[in-house]
Amino acid sequence: MAKPSRSTLQPDRYFSSDPQQKQIARELYASTEHLPLVCPHGHVDPRTFADPDFNLGTPTDLFLIPDHYIFRMLYSQGISLERLGIPTVDGAVVETDHRAIWQIFADNFHLFRGTPTGTWLTQELHSVFGVDEKLTSETSQSIYDHIADQLTKPEFRPRRLFERFNIEVLATTDAASDRLHDHRSIRESGWKGRVVPTFRPDGVVNIDRPDWREQIERLSEVCGFEINSTSRLISALEQRRAYFKEMGATATDHAALTPYTAELSETEADRILHSALEGTAGEDDARRFTGYLLMENARMSIEDGLVMQLHVGSYRNHNRAIYERFGADKGADIPIPHEFTRNLAPLLNKYGNDARLTLILFTLDESTYARELAPLAGHYPAVKLGPPWWFNDSINGMRRYRDLVMETAGIYNTAGFNDDTRAFPSIPARHDLARRVDADWIAGLVLRGIVDRTDADEMALDLAYRLAKKAYKL
Amino acid sequence: MAKPSRSTLQPDRYFSSDPQQKQIARELYASTEHLPLVCPHGHVDPRTFADPDFNLGTPTDLFLIPDHYIFRMLYSQGISLERLGIPTVDGAVVETDHRAIWQIFADNFHLFRGTPTGTWLTQELHSVFGVDEKLTSETSQSIYDHIADQLTKPEFRPRRLFERFNIEVLATTDAASDRLHDHRSIRESGWKGRVVPTFRPDGVVNIDRPDWREQIERLSEVCGFEINSTSRLISALEQRRAYFKEMGATATDHAALTPYTAELSETEADRILHSALEGTAGEDDARRFTGYLLMENARMSIEDGLVMQLHVGSYRNHNRAIYERFGADKGADIPIPHEFTRNLAPLLNKYGNDARLTLILFTLDESTYARELAPLAGHYPAVKLGPPWWFNDSINGMRRYRDLVMETAGIYNTAGFNDDTRAFPSIPARHDLARRVDADWIAGLVLRGIVDRTDADEMALDLAYRLAKKAYKL
Amino acid sequence: MAKPSRSTLQPDRYFSSDPQQKQIARELYASTEHLPLVCPHGHVDPRTFADPDFNLGTPTDLFLIPDHYIFRMLYSQGISLERLGIPTVDGAVVETDHRAIWQIFADNFHLFRGTPTGTWLTQELHSVFGVDEKLTSETSQSIYDHIADQLTKPEFRPRRLFERFNIEVLATTDAASDRLHDHRSIRESGWKGRVVPTFRPDGVVNIDRPDWREQIERLSEVCGFEINSTSRLISALEQRRAYFKEMGATATDHAALTPYTAELSETEADRILHSALEGTAGEDDARRFTGYLLMENARMSIEDGLVMQLHVGSYRNHNRAIYERFGADKGADIPIPHEFTRNLAPLLNKYGNDARLTLILFTLDESTYARELAPLAGHYPAVKLGPPWWFNDSINGMRRYRDLVMETAGIYNTAGFNDDTRAFPSIPARHDLARRVDADWIAGLVLRGIVDRTDADEMALDLAYRLAKKAYKL
To answer: Helix, strand, or coil here: B256?
Structure first.
């Protein structure tokens, strides 16, 4: 069979096959393709930019080992994480031959057919690294060589890539106790790239996390006082938020199993905190404490202006054996159903009418899109909807989101795109895919007479660039 | 940029862009476009037709103030309801300059891009009022003038519009205690327009409503006896149903938070009623009492032949501050998930095999379409499915409904279209949109060889006209 | 109107109308159209093949009486099951004039417009029986005559049809206590058709079934020992699994109302078993006992290699009156919502990392596709997803499944197609429809640049043939 050529990356990829729609999509995409990338939420390590000479490692270091989207799929077909070089918690030996791991990856690249991971990788290999061949068992080693060679070059240092990618701003995600040394280094280095932190207090808020006490101690240490009451915890959070804001943060981020919110009396909150410190708090305590601190954080957001993100519905570390051997974020987080209408009522009744609050909601339960989220965003001044998250950050996922959300919420109650990735070199591919899918969606509206072309032009710019910038105050 | 012209209302709007499908859709639509409008469920005030000279007010009175679909979207972007002239419960002063309100509306008309409200409005302005320009900040006042001018003309009196719209029958929605004076006036006026009431007893059935006691007193008054037992409440309902039927009603309508149904002993039902009268009934009492009276109303429907509609899943008045200041129906009703299979089992086991009952189900939880509703409608002789409701009464919502319901239930277990609107002049636009979307859906079936053209022609007439008329016995 | 001709069965049916996509779909379909049929899960009675001269009866016997997909739709429109000749439990007289029943069916064939049942029937009449006319009130009797005539011919004996259909293997579904006499007859007959049993122990596992004690007694009898403890029940299951495996089975099948799994101590399990034997077990006992035996069966599958199927979410016999008069499987099974992430955690934590287990999951709750099932299958080595089941085994249902599952799970964590039918002559139509829909889906991926043509060719073969064969070890 003939060697697949560059043509595997079609210039009109992800557009409708209808010639008229494709033509409009092409034109709309042309207006957004080269806009700067606004990256208001993600998980790139700020160390990557703190050191001007940061080296991205081997192709396997770069593509596979940090990316649970990829290795979970290999694992699902019976390939052990040890063979893929995933480090263990206890430092037990795993595969260290990165060429061998890359070969396994290439041998199984067919598993990614039709997946967003597959499309991002193909584009990333092509556009970032200049790989024109398809990744197969046969081409595996020559592609490895090619990428390894590229990675030695100065223009593949992260700061240079950041500039080449045309990133206007990149937000990282950082623990409440983080001293933000890397962010400070970036700011003090004189480099013009804008990398800002995001305040994520989950570690000290969710008392059911195995490392909660450790996180509380760290927070205590960085704040300089003991955290033995809810009021002190709240003071600590306020202090850290102020510091994060000073360091450029415009947003906070909160993960919760469900969107439960409720007020607690100080007595009750203290009782739960003390139980947690004594290790006797139960599941319901954890839920109530998180729900209470979500409300407190909403209040703080009104006061300090930080945009509040809420990511809901991931049941973390579903596979205990994997968690115990390899730790968190190993592809074993599985969504659960959840409900927003009743759960968010306490928070929204208290703060939802206050336009100083921006609460951006993310879900893993698409059944809530049309039923709960779009009506909430289409009513409360404080509520905006984040883009399709995680498993739903995909071509079909984006189309479902548009289909289910837009008619009730309109696009102006949404927060644009974010890439939410820890895989830095995949950022351009992710934005490009989103811009293409959005251009095609808008083209469909034009063609069916739902919006006119004038509106379409504006919408394309809004979805690709303006909405994210505005929602996150960037 | 050139002034948008009439062409913003594309003649082939909402059809697929595929030329073959568009051609078939066009032909099917041509067969339904001019059929009379059957409006079996809606919220137009019968007063509108009782007075032959009824004046629809200013453009703002007509389009914005009564329509929570519109002002909730403006509110979601931080525009206060006071600025939009929405009347307060306590009569506190709100904006009275209708031109100023209209200007805000026009300044923010971009919020409706891609929404059904936007498409209905555009068509309504064009087809009912002859507005050819796009509503923008610039055109706002001239369009206001134009509409205001039209509204002074005799042909814009509601009865004349009713005739021009080619409405065959329009059902209103009326409280159990309503004496139907307006309906009587209409009947006695000699005007030929068919406007019929619908019996909606929610006010006296749902004991958790804030105004329940007031409603019970009104019912008591109109019936001429005290309602101090369940049997008397049931007698009152039966008496009112008979009166509504005499006044032309063919249907009842019931709203419930969930589709819970269950029998109660008379003792237990009386206990709950007495608690409610004493103001001590709890949430569970309310749920059980509603569930019990749903069953009683099903029994009555078998006896008197009134079609029973059940609308499920709206959590009313989610935003307490808005409710307290502006009252109900202000865009703050948010859906909740619900379940039909177990909840309706008591009612369906008792009455679902009786073909004398027509129970038309509406949901705000689309996850029930394929999972529960289509299988129930595809089995029980009594069950029919209502069209996509409220937030889902939209182009995408209709397509999802067809996609999720039709293969299991077929179209003959559905109840056709209804516009469910309080915005009288939007009725033709809503029916037109539905007829176009249906024509396009059927055209897709033809083109993919799923139904032949002969069947398609029948289906188009069924969906646009016959099914609603038959299901509602009109 | 002219008589509909053969053209009602379009050669390009179910493909997209886009000419480019249609062309690719056609080519992909050409590569799968004539592949043998792998039928790893279904409900054809093995008696059909045990007797070489088995007669399929009248057209009504063949098409209508055994097929609840068909008669439930007629029933939903008020046609009694008695009039349709459905046998009663107590043998009360029902309609016996098969021509009259067929006439009712034809008179109401419009009910099936746009349904999978309608499309399968049309193709079956055409391709299996050579019927070129559309089924209508007018053509009803001549079509009946034609089919009845065909059914007298030797080439319409089931074994001959099996060969003509090009079935490579057909799995039946058989109770745990079944002695598999028919399967033995088939094997000993020298006929080359491969018909294998599937071990389905629901009857003895789900203690809330009305006939559970009867089933336990049958199992006891066939095993030769009394089943008065959980360990004996487990021994019995193990013994029967071994026998089924010997008789060619490669899989087991389990139906559960929810996917609840949990371990039980032997004491607790025995307590529940004894309660069940005494008739005092409650609903929660049933749930826990089923959940425990699902885990035990997973363990057995690891040991004996039988593939484990789990079908979840059907609330059986929702309509009690129908159940009491006509028995089970009468079109009154209605799905309920369910949850996999938490419910399967015990089973998956114990066995999900073991690649010797293949656990194929089926659901009637599509909201779990993207949210729970695809992430689970995309992580756990043991988990595969079965094709869209029952109500969702349809053109739209298949597209939703692909849309919701593939991006996260990829196609290689799915188990291909199965027809799941008790209607033997509908098998080719069902596979043909699936192959067409899949070809069209893949063609769409090619055209939008998501997969290349080389990958597409492989995927078409995988979905049509290889995946089912591999997942079921056939």
So the answer is: strand
